[in-house]
Structures are given as structure tokens and as C-alpha cells.
Request: fold
Amino acid sequence: MAEQTKYIFVTGGVTSSLGKGIVSASLAKLLQARGHTVTIQKLDPYINIDPGTLNPYEHGECFVTDDGAETDLDLGHYERFLNVRTSQANNITTGRIYQNVIDRERRGDYLGRTVQVIPHITDEIKRCIQLLAKEGHYDFVITEIGGTVGDIESLPYVEAVRQMKWDLGKDALVIHLTLVPYLAAAGELKTKPTQHSVKQLLELGVQPDILVCRTEHPLTDDIRVKVARFCNVSVEAVIESIDAETIYDVPNLMANEKLDQVVLSKMGIPFEGDAELSTWNDFIWRLKSPKEIVRIGLIGKYIELKDSYKSIVESFIHAGAANGVKVKLEWIHSESLSKENVAKKLSHLDGVLVAPGFGGRGIEGKIEAIRYVREKEIPFFGICLGMQCAVIEYGRNVLGLNEAHSTEMDPDTEYPVIDIMEHQKSIINKGGTMRLGQFPCQLKEDSIAMACYGKKEIMERHRHRYEFNNDFQSLYESKGMRMTGVNPESRLVEIIEIPEHPWFVGVQFHPEYKSTVAEPHPLFIGFVQAALAGRKVEETEKELVDS
Ligand code: GLN
Reply:
């Protein structure tokens, strides 16, 4: 559509966690609903090359793209809102920027010159922003700058934004997110932190065009005028971002505040009426009027931090809405499970999901849970490590392979039913070296997977080093566990099922990365359906209202 890509920068002030990612995704949704092509990029100011080596406690879930990039979890929101795939180019860190520049320096590209933050680092930041626009021929690139304005590590990014704004004029725009706190003692909303934060941006040479003010209470007209006056923006450009019931409400909230219209007017792009959100609102309606509740246990070891399983949680929201039910997740720490208490903790559940993970902590609890749900015929969904645990459990308790294990946990096990992939054995570096990204998988007829997907060839995303050990395949198949999804080239087992069980599916890949509002994931839909079919406890009227 547009010849010149338009650049929208989203910065944050006062504190982190104001919802830059959701506001960016919501604005993108509104522009997309008006027929524009949009992508969103996250620039992270930390030195790691990517978040792949970070503990989930540090940074929440690591989101994996089709092309195998290990990225910030905000990219998950972008994909779920827009139903457009992202790639490595959508998430850049300071580490990567520096690595690119230093590689060039070593090659001799800057021979004879001093390499400096300005212009070399800022030029590389600008190149990464513009490259994304070029690759995808987008009308809009929305670039979210991680961190908070004023942080030392964010300075080169803000400087790159200043330069691009200068170069591009109307074709670049800055949205600054700030906090307008409510002081209960004074009974008032306070604008001072916003004023300070904008001043800080101004000191760096950037005048924001739009202010999105996160608040717990509606912004009065007086407050809007005051913010506008102190911060040199028009009153229409002061946008309220009030706490929402669900993140999926934010596109509508932003539309009510006319964020998209203000953006388009400021960039000189003609538009008519409101963004067309009818499909989105169908989803919202289904989400908010569930007819029943299903209870699903999510077993993992990072459950203190729910962001560690972000994509799984969102996939259940999509699949619940698709089935007209509310999925109530019960978080169960794998370390808290034992043979003695497993019945007490799981017997009331309609389904159990065992989450992905690394290392041995909590593994025996996961295996105990799987034994219980297998024997009690409770629907089971195992993802990555969750699938591997299902294989270990079956080996130990059905096939009699004493102390069968994954060589990740027990390198000397007599029965290595899960083993490191051959090509992984020689890899020493930890960063970006797993089996990553999208691979094809062929499904067997008459399998649960085939019934869910409705096709034979699927593509799913991976992030692991260990695999089902094919030496054991015929033994497992002869004793009731079926390998129903296999990589057509490498023959690696990607899906296991127990046909005798109502719904027992383990997948080596991560289906949760591909579920979006527009296309909820077929396996999550199938799992929720199975949980619904075998529902144990009827919900109370109150639970439905509260949901
Ligand atoms: N730790 C396991 C592996 O590397 C599983 C990884 C995961 O669950 N993402 O194979």
C-alpha cells in the first residue's frame, strides 16, 4: 500500500511493566484491521545475544519463531494478536547489535577508523529497524524499545530514534507510555511522573507525539489538558490506558481512545470511520460468555512466575473460547507432587498438562502425575519435556524398564528411552544450538493428532536437545504406545499417543507458540474438548459469573 514504510516507536517511562507490548500489539491490530500491513519489533537493551540462555525466572518464557529465533515473550503477543509470523529480525538485543559491529570491525570494514557508539552502534540499530521494513514490505513497522527511558543501556536506542525521526519527518512517530498514578490519600491522579519522564526524553532530543497514560482510574479532561500542556502534545494525543480485565480488551480500549486515528492523522494517512474489529469481537464475546468451566492442571517447575508459561496460558484462552468454555488453570508445582499426594491433588481435574522444561528438578513429580492420569484415564497433554516424561513413565511402569530415564537427567541409565540427538553430542556452545524452529511432521491415520489437525502434514516449532530413542520404538508400539507423528526426513518421533486412553498425547514440539486469536491451536482445542467430555465437577453459578 504505502510506498514509504512508516515507523512508529514505542518507548516507556516511569516504570517497566506498563504494557508496552500489549499497546504496541493493539495499535498494530487496529492498523491491520484498516487494511494496512504491519509488523512489530522489540529492541531489548540487554547484552545477551538473545533470551535463549536466560532462566525463565529472569525473563519469562522464551518465545520461538518459525525460523528458530529464541526471542522475547512480547513476540508471542504480536503473533497472537496479528496472526502474522515474526522472525529473528523482529527481536534485536544490544548483544546482537554489538556482535554485528564487532564482527565487521574484525573483518576490517572500518579499517583505520575508531568504532564508536555514535555513529556505528546507532547506525546498526537503524539498519536493523529498516531491514525489517525492507524484508516484509510493510506499511508500518512498530518498534518497541525495551526498558525505561533514562536507563543507561537504552541511550543508544533513543538516540537512533531521534536520528530516524529527524531523517523521516512525518513518516516516523514516537508514542511514549507513562504511568499516571493514583494517590489514595490525596484522592487524585498525579501527572508529575509523566512530566518528568517526558522531560527526560526531551533532554535526549526526542519530542513524543503521543502519550499513552497507564492508569487505574479514568483520566479526567483536566488531567488530559494538563498532561498535554506540560508535555507539548495535543489533547487528542493524550491516550488513556486503563487497567483491563483481559489483554484482549486493549485493542477496543485503544480504539475508543482513537489511538489509531491520532496515529494516522499525524502521519498524514487518510482514513474513514472506525477499525473493523468484528472477528476480533466475536472472539471477545466467546471469551466472556463461557457456558461451562473445565479444570486443567498445569504442572511445571516455574509456576511462581506465570510468565514462564505465557504461550500455554494464552493457548488455553483461545481454545477455551473456541469451545465456548472457560479453562480454569490450576497451577501445580512438580516438586510438590509425590506418590502419596498425587490422587488428592489431581483427582478432581478434567485434564492435566505437563509443561516443557530443562533439568531434573521436579521430574519425579511429573512422572508420578503422568502415571496417575494414565491409570485414571484423565486427559493428558505433554509438551516437550512433558512428552519425554510420558515416555519415561510408560517405560518404567508398563514396559518394566527399571529406572528408564532421559540421559539429560541420568547419563548412565540402563534404559535411555530419551537420548541426546546425535548431532547435539559434539556441540559445546549453549546459545542458539538446540533443535530450534519449524520442522515438518507427518501424522498417522486414525490418530488423535490427525483428527485434531485434519491433515497429514504439519509444521511445528521446536526447542530441545533430547529426543525419543528410536531403538525402543518397536517395544513401545508393541505394548500400546503409538508414535503418531514422525519427522519425514530424520524419522525423529514428534508425537506419542496411547490409543486405549481417552486422550493421551505427548508432543516433542511446542504447539503453544502457534496458537493465535484467529487460529487457536488444534491440539489445544482437542485437549479442552476431551477435558469437557469427561468433566468431573459442575461449575457453580458464581464461578461462571466470576470468570
Ligand atoms: N530439556 C528437554 C530437552 O532439551 C526438553 C526441552 C523442552 O521442554 N523445551 O530435550
